[in-house]
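Continuing the series of single-chain predictions for the mutant panel. This is the parent chain; the variants come on the following pages.
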Amino acid sequence: MATNATYRVIQWATGGIGQISIRHLADNPAFALVGAYVTSDEKDGKDLGELADIAPLGARATRDADALLTLDADCVNYAPLYADVDEMCRILRSGKNLVTPVGFCYPKVLDPSVVARLEAACQDGGTSLHGTGIHPGFTGDLLALTYARLASRIDQIVVQEVADLRNHPSPKMNFEGLGFGRDPDDAKADPSPLITTMDRIFFESISLLADGLGIEVERFDTDFDVAVALRDLKVRSGEIPKGGVAGMRFEWQAWSGGKPVIVFRSFWKMDDDVDPDWGYDKSKYALIFHGLPSFKVNFEPTDPGPNGDIGYWGRMWTAMAAVNAIPSVCAAAPGIRTHLDLAPVRPLGLFRP
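Parent structure:
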């Protein structure tokens, strides 16, 4: 893989993750940002720099997907809130590789017809598809596999995430997608649409880790619970009334030998003071290995983020896991390429004196 290449990239969707990606693609000399796809009239035709709150870049956003896919580009960074398989196939068939932080980190466990369509699109376009992100896509799969090399025996792996969303800018994600602010009983009885999407994505990630470690999974369990606000809250993306959902706990388990051997836990919050208190702490990720030896790996931000938004770093990690994989995905053979298929990613252009 050439290390001095410039990869021409199209940004697909310009929400929080897309805007972070634009800023990086504009600043990193390994990439050239050639266009972006948007869905709103408000963003159509705007310079990408304006959308990302930086200086003009000379490339404009468009709602015309046909025109965008005729551009000369190596890869599409696909970051909508919800994935559209038809859209993804169209991109891949156009001759453009695709990286995405919205799942597809281990598509083999999805509906076989979906996998067949994506693989066929890759072969038709001579392109590769790679799904990644911070969790799923890195912490519970790639990072866990890497640290597993240090063990002599593994009895259980626990992957834990704490995400602070109070300064997350998207009402569409937080309120419409996840259901923050809802009545807690209604939220558990009829989960919001992103909860179902997360089940799919985390099922992929936990399956990738199990297959990577050669674990024969007997069954998978999931659990979802909510915590409520103890006072009226005003967060960046909206308002949550006292008694409304202000915290969420997700747990996914893979069982083998009659016990849970892989456990993924995610705690998402809009405030530090919620009921019940599950022991929320600041934004961080942890891997806990039980076995020989037992050990813990933890990483977290070391500064509070722009305007005190510590959750910003989690969004940046999500974006960078995909963008920094672009050179490796472009160099890969056509097809669906997971962490088990790709050579170690070599991030380019990160050191910029």
